[in-house]
Amino acid sequence: MELLLVILIGLLYASGIFMMLRRSMVKLIIGLILLGNGANMLIFLLGRIVKGKPPIIESSAKMLTEIYADPVPQALILTAIVISFGLQSFAIILVKRAYKITDTDDLDELNTTDEIYE
Amino acid sequence: MIIAILSGFIVAALIPLLSKFIKSKGSILLPFLPMSLFVYFASYLPRIGKGEKLSFVYEWVPSFGINLSFHLDGLSMLFALLITGIGTLVFFYTFSYLKGHIYLDRFYGYLSMFMASMLGLVLSDNIITLFIFWELTSISSFFLIGFNNDDPKSRKSALLALSITGMGGLFLLAGMLLLGTAGGSYSFQELLSNGNLIQAHDNYGWIILLVFLGAFTKSAQFPFHFWLPGAMKAPTPVSTYLHSATMVKAGIYILARFTPLLGGTAEWNTTLIIVGAVTMVYAAIHAIFRMDMKSILAYSTISALGILVFLIGLGTEESLLAACVFILVHALYKATLFLITGIVDHETGTRDVTVLGGLRKVMMPVAIAAGLAALSNAGAPPFFGFIGKDLIYEATLHFGDWAYLLTGAAILTNICLLFAGLLAGYKPFAGNLPAEFSKVHLPHPTMWVPPLILAVLGLVFGLFPVLIEKNLIQPVFSSLTNNDTLIHLKLWHGFNVVLGLSMLTLTLGVLLYWKLKPSEALFGKTLKFELFSPQTIAMLFGRLFSEFAKLWTGFFQNGYLRNYVITILGFLTILLGYRLYQGVNFYVDTAKLTELTIYEVIVVLIMIISIIFTVFSKSRLVAVASLGVIGYSICLIFLFYSAPDLAMTQFSIDTLTVILFVLVIYNLPKYKTFSKRRVRVRDGILSVFFGTLIAILTLEVLSEPLNRETSIFYAESAYILAKGKNVVNVILVDFRGLDTIVEITVLVIAAIGVFSLLKLRLKSIEKE
């Protein structure tokens, strides 16, 4: 399974970068999301994957003893997912707003900030 | 000692607090600072005269070997007396010269700062502190040149001076560091005992080159001389003090100071002789075509500095003695002439020698001072300048094969300097008084007494050289040559070649003065040569440099997001690719891998298909939906591999993102493909390369052993310390609770942003 995930991570990174290099802002955001997913998977995989052993202590025990899934990467990813959601939602609304004002989605037409209010 | 040096800084720091008092009456008190310092240093004269050398050590940064150690010997003494002595006169002079100026307090602050830095420079034994004080003099000089900061020319000159001397300072620092490494110490006295070691060191050439660059920029040697005439934009007291008597001699000081340590080799002497000779002749010739009194004096100062470098370069005992004497000679007459220029400018409003004349009728004492200074400058007996000039000729005449050439250069320089001195010190006071100046009157005594004192000293030292021979010049000579040969200064040597040369110089100089009248036309002719001057070349270089910077910045900071991304990724790919090319050591232990199940394979396949759809679909809705599918699949993977919290979060967040996309989808622009096919292929190749690299890296990291220390800590303490059974939850809300609060804050900010972007009405202007 690890090997499959490695391929998947490579694919997510490649597609994310490719979309980020597009001129359309919507595609840029999609690229950002793909890249974020890739990064999350990367962290998850590097914490080593374990099947069916969530890091939750049995009601009778006081600590985790046997093999369990690593809780640290999970905590990191959880934070990352939530933060990237904040970023994505803001970006989506910003693109919508920018499009309303400038009437374009082409990044190349947006690199002069000063001329809008002429 | 340390208080004496730092007192200038302390006063400079106090001045802003007392600015009201200083602007009204208090400024008359300030000259007593340099005056008391002068007395303090002069009190050491008898001990220095006996050949003593005094050391004062204070620890500063002992771990780097940087101590505040000060060393008072003959050379330091001469400079300390010049700095405080001329400082006193300049402080008094400023009192009247800038009376009522709104920034008088600032001016005194800068002057005190400069005086302290200069004292520190000439007294430092540690070569790193020497460098620090050296830079401080450049900085205070920058402030003083740009004192009239509403004048753009003033500001430009200040910047030019700072960039030239500051650049030189950096060279000097590099030189000092190399020197410290080569000699194993940053203390000059300790280095001195390792002189042979340093001269034999591999880096000797670099050390002297760097020291030369520092000294030449500071002392305005060709081809770095051009900042000095510009620096004359400063008020005249500054020109007197910094740009003729003291600061520009810092370079000379360094060269003189390092002569016993680094000097005596062919590289050292030849370089100094050539640079000094070129500078003295070049600047002397320039001086005679000027009409502005300050420009004349500026060029003649550069020329005099050239003479000093030249004399140090000759390196014989005679020439070093000549250098010792000439430092004092030049300081006395040149400071006088500058102060007089200031008076003339202050009273008549012009410095043009072609207009000025007959001023002796209205300001006799000034005329006397000017006359005395001009005569000392001319080297006429029985002035101190005569002794100085004699020593120079003696030094050049006894310099072996090149004696004739060097003496010729010295004579030519001296003729031009004599001419320049007459132009500035005699011409404005001789002849008839033009009607427009008939109402000119003598300024306040604090202005005309200082130049008179200096000018009279020039005469007194000439008549009675014995006054300074033993106590002042002898110790300077000893610290330059590092031996105790007794010297003897005298006015009359009998009829010999040197006397003949002196007379020849005088005659030719006066003859030149009768024949050559400076005029606009003549000055205009010299301007044609400006095309090849170092200044023009330096300016051209500066312009090219800024053009290059513009191109460079334009190339990298081009304003296209994707170009930045491409640059960064391209660089990263090449770097990683090179690393991997050198050898990848991963090996996959198939036994350790978790086994595959059919539903996992299906999930991964779904993801791959969705990625392809997301990237290549022409429909926005399809792309967004596929994005959702990818998110849910990741959610499933989390679920398979024991991360239920992640699965839940991913599920809800992904749903929200897709909903948000769909909600605004009709307000979004058309899903267009802007780029050309060629560009897409290029981006595709780069992305695939980068993705592959990441995959290979992941594999490599996977084969490395994992450190689980942190995880074990959390797993063991989650319940015991935090009473929670879900370890991931405990980490987030308890162990790293503060991080989570910040995270929530970030989300709130994003939410406020989203809300305001949605609700804020477009202003009418934006709709257009």
UniProtKB/TrEMBL annotation, chain A:
Membrane disposition: Multi-pass membrane protein
One GO cellular component term: plasma membrane
Annotated TM spans: 6-21, 28-50, 75-95
Keyword terms, alphabetized: Cell membrane, Membrane, Transmembrane, Transmembrane helix
Signal peptide: none
Main location: membrane
Compartments, record wording: Cell membrane
Protein's UniProt keywords contain Nucleotide-binding: no
NCBIfam families in the record: PRK09094.1, PRK12659.1
Family: Belongs to the CPA3 antiporters (TC 2.A.63) subunit C family.
Name of this protein: Multisubunit sodium/proton antiporter, MrpC subunit
Upper taxonomic lineage: Bacteria, Pseudomonadati, Bacteroidota, Cytophagia, Cytophagales
TrEMBL record, chain B:
GO annotation terms (biological process): monoatomic ion transport
A GO MF term: antiporter activity
Domain of life: Bacteria
Membrane topology designation: Multi-pass membrane protein
Residues covered by the MrpA C-terminal/MbhE domain: 680-759
Ranges of residues in domain NADH:quinone oxidoreductase/Mrp antiporter transmembrane: 124-407
Record's subcellular location: Cell membrane; Membrane
Record's GO cellular component terms: plasma membrane
Location of the MrpA C-terminal/MbhD domain: 605-670
Domain NADH-Ubiquinone oxidoreductase (complex I) chain 5 N-terminal: 62-108
Bilayer-crossing regions: 29-47, 78-95, 107-124, 130-147, 159-184, 204-228, 240-256, 268-289, 296-314, 320-341, 362-384, 404-426, 447-468, 491-514, 560-578, 598-616, 621-641, 647-669, 681-699, 740-758
Chief localization: membrane
Record keywords: Antiport, Cell membrane, Ion transport, Membrane, Transmembrane, Transmembrane helix, Transport
Name of the protein in question: Multisubunit sodium/proton antiporter, MrpA subunit
Organism of this sequence: Belliella buryatensis
